[in-house]
Amino acid sequence: MKKDKEPSLTTQIDHDVRLKSRYRRWTFGLGGLIVLALVSISILCWGYYKGIGTIDRFDLFLSYKVGYTKLPSEKEISPNNKKNNGYWTAWFTDNTMGNEWTKLILTTGLNPEVKDPYVMAYHKGSYVKVARIVPHTYINQTAPILKFGTKIIRFCVIMIKIRIGVFL
After folding, report:
1. How many angstroms separate the first and last alpha carbons of the chain?
2. DSSP code of residue 58
3. Would you say 96 and 143 are in contact if contact means Cβ atoms under 8 Å apart?
4. DSSP 156
């Protein structure tokens, strides 16, 4: 004798087939999202590794920094240069202490008669948003931590020497 609460075999098979198609859609959907995320992250990492500015422009994991370097000779940065069309490559320091460096490719134009010219670049990875030619005195005004930081380091070295007894 059959119990009234048990579904029939055909009803159970029909229910299992519907669940199977639902699970298949969810599996393909989640799998597609995971593959899309992995491909996106790998493209961003590859662009950062190769230094491709277009990819770095849209990379959410990078932040904008200001870098400084000495302006190269006018022969190298001239827009009339057929070899590089005015684009030049240099290493830029990204902080006042000079321990973070980024290699950038950019164009600035010729020096507008600035004495002791430096280039200030606002960049995100290899993507340069703005590059300006500034005098060396401007860098000293915008980075007072460098002057103050060297005094702190000298003070700390003297205190360490006193602590270990070098001056006694």
Report:
1. 104
2. T
3. yes
4. H
CA dist 79 and 76 (Å) reads 9
pLDDT digits (tens, 9 = 90+) for 59-93: 788 888 888 888 888 878 778 777 778 788 888 88
Q: How far apart are CA 64 and CA 78, in angstroms?
A: 27
pLDDT in tens, 3-19: 567 778 888 888 888 88
Closest CA relative to residue 64, chosen from 108, 120, 111: 120
- Distance (Å, rounded) from C-alpha 87 to C-alpha 64? 21
Cβ-contact 119, 109 below 8 angstroms: no
Residue keyed to tokens 């460098």: 146
Position 12, amino acid: Q
